[in-house]
Amino acid sequence: MWSTLVLTTFLTSTVVSVSASPSESSSRFKPRNNNNGPNYLTSSSSLKSSYDFIIVGGGLAGLTIASRLSENSSTSVLVLEAGQTGDAVASQINEPANTYYDSLLGSEYDWAYKTSSQSGMNGRQLDWPRGKVLGGSSAVNGMYLVRPSKVEIDAWAQMASSGDDSGSSSPWAWDSFYAAMKKAETFDAPSDDIKNTAGIEFNADSYGTDGPIHWGYPGFTFPILSNWSPALSSLGVPANPDPVSGNNTGSFIANSAIRKSDWTRSYSRSGYIDSISTPRSNLDILTGATVTGIVWDGSSSSSSTFSASSSDLKATGVQYALSSTSPKQTINVNKEVILSAGTIGSAQILMVSGVGPESVLQDAGVDVKVDLPGVGQRLQDHLVTSLAYSTTSSVTTAGSIHTSQSTQSQSPESMSFINSATAYLPLSSLFQSGSSLQSVISSAQSSMQSQLQAYKTSGYKGTGSGDQVDDTVVKGYQSIYTTITDTLYSSPSSGQIELLIALTQPNTIVLQAAIQHPLSMGRMYITSNDVFVSPVLDPSYLQNNVDLQILRQGVKMLDELATSSSSSLSQFISGRTNPPAKETTSDDDWDSFILSSSSTEFHPSSSCASLPLSLGGVVDPGSLRVYGSANVRVMNASVFPMEMSTHLGAPTYGVGEIGVGLVRAEYEGNKSGSGVNATDNSSNSGSGSGNGSAGGDSSGARGMKVDLMMVVGLGLLAFVFI
């Protein structure tokens, strides 16, 4: 009845572009300078016998950490990345618009995961793409750069310090997190023509000025975007002229990870690695190397089990393999192993190494080293619903220009256009009637106990069989749940729905709504001790009916945005094509469409939560060290205890910067962490031949394949990644 939309953000009419200089354009895909930066190893025989730090996963966070740690020339660092370098697909990575028109998803650069059958979505299995390339998701995503709101980060800090055992101070309060995000960035202001044509507003003082990742805008845009904020304003949603300094609610044109000097993607490889201007012999990177487990001191004794409340389990190295049939090889570590393998890979590696829920490990044939029940639990994701509309004859979309194959369509400026108009709506903007708003909040609050009980009794695998979920994990779920219902639902600066507009299909505008703080939380778990066997991924989409209510309201607001005579956007739309207007006349109709068509917004998180042990945490908030271990940390989007109203790229860079600062402070006595002296302004930083994992972070973890039948049905994909 309805075709499925896996897309996400699009555009349209008189086109404005800003040209790069000929010298800049000609060097856009210049190969990296092999005389500078790290050692890219072509064989495992070139590895040293040991390294001070081994980083598992060369994605968004992993390369951030590798670059910062190796600034100290006396520190040896190894990055093990399961994917390839990406040199062979440099143009697909570097040209921003290729994220839609020549995507790497569904290729060897994608882990190609699927969720388990989702009972809350008619039993559907959803695709979960994750990048498998140096640079991770930052090499293949939609390049959105959005910051969460202060109230969310401060809520995380409050939860991190609320456990009975919270002895360490949390580095996650807004001021420190904001500073860490700014440390990663350089702001590239748009030209006046681009700014005025698209209606872009910004406060330059809210951005970083000399970090590795460029926060810019496309060099090509469309006047229809200037109607985005006025149209939303007519529905009671104000414009936000400064969405990056602590309150991201309202409408705005978001920043994109684009380097203005040559209109290329700015991502963790180009920013943190390829731009290093001097040789860095203390940093080795080996691609095509899948870590199969952590090697523990005394691990030959299968009877050695350690308490999660201790720090007794010490890693002596890691094992890796070049393929599922290759022999495992061991590399020794002198100081620490840092897991940056993304939300999926980090939890999976912990579990196959013997750290996780005891019953899950035993069922998978893994010797238990630490019974840590929170590993893989409370898995979350943003769920998005897409509506498609045909445009009037006066409108030109980016997709129309691209399919024309004109000279203009292939210019660097045109190929830099990606979707970026967005809006975050607090609950009060969605339910503008006071009684309706209070009814939703009351319904969420009153359903908490039944939700917690169902989660506990469903067990670690969500099937209702086997051990019930540990009380600490359930208590952590309760803490997150009440934070959402009692704090974030009532906050005017916490978005509960994200709205997006996409212009990358011919003669089509796609509008999207994505839930930001799902009360429904699931789990991921291993079924084998073999890391090459994908884990079960169960985000438990829409298990709580309040999530469906909120998403439905967001979708209905989208339709009003497109059809209301008071909306300045409606003049560009001739009709709705998916779902056809006649098929949605009631809330039940909308619910049916949501359940049958919604997809991931590519933001999985929270499988290794940074929370106290008494709240089912996996890593200590004050150090990001795995509970029970002496020298294993996790640094990526998996440590977020809850989803936030943001794309995951910017906050994950923040996690990387804070995390590496904690490590360097411990070993070097440098309280401020590392300085920002690697920026991708140098001529060799545009090589963009990266390969890592995809998604909010996914630094070299696992991945997901796009359903190619959906691609054929839609023509083009437009991803809202990160």
From TrEMBL:
Location of the Glucose-methanol-choline oxidoreductase C-terminal domain: 518-656
Residue span(s) of domain Glucose-methanol-choline oxidoreductase N-terminal: 51-384
InterPro entries, A to Z: FAD/NAD-bd_sf (IPR036188), Glucose_Oxidase_domain_2 (IPR027424), GMC_OxRdtase (IPR012132), GMC_OxRdtase_N (IPR000172), GMC_OxRtase_C (IPR007867)
SUPFAM superfamilies: FAD-linked reductases, C-terminal domain (SSF54373), FAD/NAD(P)-binding domain (SSF51905)
Keyword 4Fe-4S: no
Keyword flag Transcription: no
Signal peptide: 1-20
Alphabetized GO MF terms: flavin adenine dinucleotide binding; oxidoreductase activity, acting on CH-OH group of donors
Key words of the record: FAD, Flavoprotein, Oxidoreductase, Signal
Location of region: Disordered: 21-40, 569-588, 671-698
Family: Belongs to the GMC oxidoreductase family.
Protein name as it appears in the record: Alcohol oxidase
Gene source species: Dendrothele bispora (strain CBS 962.96)
